[in-house]
Design goal:
GH_1_N_CS, Aryl-phospho-beta-D-glucosidase BglA, alpha/beta, single chain, 14 helices, eight-stranded parallel barrel, hydrolase, 12 strands, Glyco_hydro_1
Length: about 475
């Protein structure tokens, strides 16, 4: 084979909380993202106790896909998307998370979105929970530190599986499941109280999410055996800073943080390094024999992952060594350039990541996030000449193809992150743009929300038309 498979899934990826808007429309409830204010580069977003009048909550309006989805999906079709990765906002289906009956208006909205995609021949790829769990589950139950959330989540899964069983084939229960141990608010709704054992809370929550994911796989297969259900990992691509064995060991330990999750979800049991980590840190995680059985039975069909940049690991770092990245930070690699936000640009790192994952697990992979955040400017003729974004994607696609065609990696598809400009999850900014489509909105929430095709729009269109041959 000297070219990508004809059924390779080219497309784009978004999250409901970052682009839908309509936060209080159609019976939707408040999510954990709805109580996060705007931030900036280097300034954390504030998590408020409920909605406070006068605060800037950028996710509330986002880019208003909720009202504009037909025109936006038409633009995705114009680019030639084979698939579209999005999420179902939990709070549109169960506004409080603990109801017994779903919100029909929310279900109808996603019926319309998925039908619109399918009308154009675009395969929906769905993340069930992407940083948008109901805020009520935090206030009332403490978020994912509480095992009761397993049943609430499975109720949500059952409703959407049954509703869309003939429309959706590819599913991922959680986005970046390993984020729970790094930034536990967005994936888990966890804020720590004074004196709480934070490490124990995070890993207990991780266990509950892993059990929930395994149960979601089992449930999904019982509803439609043809479902293809995967995990979604924030991949911490990292290298040892030197050939010093201590640096190499630091690199291995960093990978363990992420591979703990995929080891459980693909192999069906806790890896020995994680059991030793819990023993060493006196983490008395509640793991029942029934949990172990469920984890063995509910393994995933593929590994979806996000990849933006890489970093290095140093056994004895200083603060000056720190680098930026997708929530999980490492240290600066002096051999790599970086984006305006300090994310190091490493196309070969994508090929390395694909090889690492495929060598370790030997199941299909899916690049479900890869993108470049930058400030875009209009030219005098009204165009947006984002050659820096084109260059980023061109080099990453080249390396992706090498992983498939030269290294033998089995890859389902490639969805670029933020195919249309949206609210940054990390900072809440709009000026950090990822899309092929510009959305007229600034960091203060002002703008017409008009859509404009960037030069990268036409580049990606050609890339998809040629199945990656014309870059």
């Amino acid at each position: 084979m000297n070219k990508l498979p004809d059924d390779f899934l080219w497309g784009g990826a978004v999250a409901a909380n970052q682009f839908e808007g309509g936060w209080n429309k159609g019976g939707k409830g408040i999510s954990v993202s709805d109580v996060m204010t705007a931030g900036t580069h280097g300034v954390e977003r504030v998590i408020t106790d409920g909605i406070i009048e006068g605060m800037n909550y950028p996710n509330h309006k986002a880019i208003d896909f909720y009202s504009r989805y037909k025109k936006d999906i038409a633009l995705f079709h114009e680019m030639g998307f084979k698939c579209f990765r999005t999420s179902i906002a939990w709070t549109r289906i169960f506004p409080n998370g603990d109801e017994s009956e779903p919100n029909e208006e929310g279900l109808l909205f996603y019926d319309s979105v998925f039908d619109e995609c399918l009308e154009y021949g675009i395969e929906p790829v769905v993340t069930i929970s992407h940083f948008e769990m109901p805020y009520n589950l935090v206030v009332k139950y403490g978020g994912w530190r509480n095992p009761m959330l397993i049943d609430f989540f499975l109720n949500f899964c059952e409703v959407v599986y049954k509703r869309y069983k003939n429309k959706i084939k590819y599913w991922m229960p959680f986005n970046e499941i390993n984020m729970i141990i790094r930034k536990p608010w967005k994936p888990g709704g966890i804020k720590f109280s004074e004196g709480e054992n934070e490490l124990l809370t995070k890993y207990q929550a991780a266990h509950y999410m892993l059990v929930a994911c395994a149960k979601a796989v089992i449930l999904g297969k019982s509803i439609n055996p043809d479902f293809i259900i995967g995990t979604m990992l924030l991949h911490t691509t990292t290298y040892a800073a030197t050939c010093n064995p201590d640096d190499v060991m630091a690199h291995i330990k960093k990978l363990h943080e992420a591979y703990f999750f995929t080891d459980v979800q693909v192999r069906g049991e806790y890896p020995s390094f994680q059991l030793k980590f819990m023993e060493k840190n006196n983490l008395d995680i509640k793991i029942s024999e029934e949990d172990k059985k469920i984890l063995r039975e509910g393994t995933v069909d593929f590994i979806g992952f996000s990849y933006y940049s890489s970093s290095i690991e140093i056994a004895n770092p200083t603060t000056e060594d720190a680098s930026e990245g997708n929530e999980i930070k490492g240290y600066k690699n002096p051999l790599l350039p970086a984006s305006e936000w300090g994310w190091q640009i490493d196309p070969v790192g994508l090929r390395i990541t694909l090889n690492w994952l495929y060598d370790r697990y030997n199941i299909p992979l899916f690049i479900v996030e890869n993108g470049f955040g930058a400030v875009d400017k209009f030219e005098e003729d009204g165009s947006i000449n984002d050659e820096y974004r084109i260059d980023y994607f061109k080099k990453h696609v080249e390396q992706m193809k090498k992983a498939v065609l030269e290294d033998g990696v089995e890859l389902l598809g490639y969805t670029t992150w933020g195919c249309i400009d949206l609210v940054s999850a990390g900072t809440g900014e709009m000026k950090k743009r990822y899309g092929f489509i510009h959305v007229d909105k600034d960091n203060d929430g002002k703008g017409t929300l008009n859509r404009t095709r960037k030069n990268s729009f036409y580049w990606y269109k050609k890339c998809i038309e040629s199945n990656g041959e014309e870059l």
